[in-house]
Amino acid sequence: MKNRIKELAKAYAPEFTAVRRHLHSHPELSFQEFETTAFIQEQLAAFGVPFQAGIAGTGIIALIEGKNPASKVIALRADIDALPITEANEVSYKSTNPGVMHACGHDVHTSCVLGATKILNELKDQFEGTIKVLFQPGEEKHPGGASIMIEEGALENPRPDAILGLHVHPSLEVGKLGFHAGKYMASADEIYITVKGKGGHAAQPHLTVDTILVASQLVVSLQQIISRNNNPFSPSVLSICAFNGGFTTNVIPSEVKLMGTFRAMDETWRFKAHELIRKQAIGIAEAMGAEIDIEILVGYPTLYNNEAVTNKARNFATDYLGKELVGDTEIRMGAEDFAFYSQVVPACFFRLGTGNVARGITSGVHTPSFDIDEQAIEVGMGTMAYLATQF
Fold first, then answer.
1. Catalytic residue positions?
2. What is the mean pLDDT of residues 266-283?
3. Which positions ≥6 away from 127 have C-beta within 8 Å?
4. Based on the domain organization, do 67 and 161 belong to the same domain?
5. How many DSSP H helices and E strands does the chain contain?
6. What's the CATH code of the domain at 268?
7. Segments forming the whole domain that contains residue 267
């Protein structure tokens, strides 16, 4: 099986490199992936793989049934949306949609999973169980396409015994994979605070509520929630990233708006922190005579890599690629909506090396110059196919 998958991955690598370039040239924003989903459906139909479209709007679920299809179900997931970034790369497959770019590698994820789907469909008489393939919209936008896919039954009929996903990793050399069992990526919640008070002349602050000062106190004080309340062995981050108020040098504004993000690796602490943020913000505002509105939008949960599934996946990947190409990867305070799946079924989310220092392919994700060494396509599709068959 291993040798056959390697042969097919090598043979199909040019085809799915071309698929990746097509997707990269035609990126679409979250929940607007209409051409992308039509293209994926054309590919699945050409493979002879049955599928259901229209999940979460532009999502797709495909099924590959092997022998004894009810014996075990393994899911593979690819996200299909792009980002509102203008591409700076001068390449033949540069984005043709102004202001939109596959700057997070979802074109790579989709191509690898499509390639694995073609391989698995050809080998379905040689393994038992069912492979369920999810092509998911809206990873980059709240509330996350994964949450909607789950609400619409993507993890039922049949229910997966495990789910696997991969993500590009530009700081990992092409050909390599990275795994981490347990808590792997942080939850991500959005914080919106509006401080209100009587504005007025800057020379008469005693006749006003200094909303700039109140907001400044909040920015500094909220950091103490992390430093004094969180277990220091459990990573957590609170960052205020926008401070908007005032319009000139001599007027204290009547309103200041703050926006930020809160990240955590522990779901209990996560929601305790929400209450502490609210309590502290309201208390400081009241003490300084201001009114305050605070909203915390609950976003993606903690991404948890099931230990048993992840250790198996790592062992299978080592068998497929060799131990020198499979290693550990660090926990990350970034967030991923694959986390929703990991809260429902045993999951493994791993990293696919796409960098090449010698060729200057080093730009990070979410940047205008992000690109990959396309040898990663063969590695990604082959690994996903092999993991699926072994599970």
1. 81, 139
2. 98
3. 1, 66, 67, 120, 389
4. yes
5. 9, 16
6. 3.30.70.360
7. 187-300
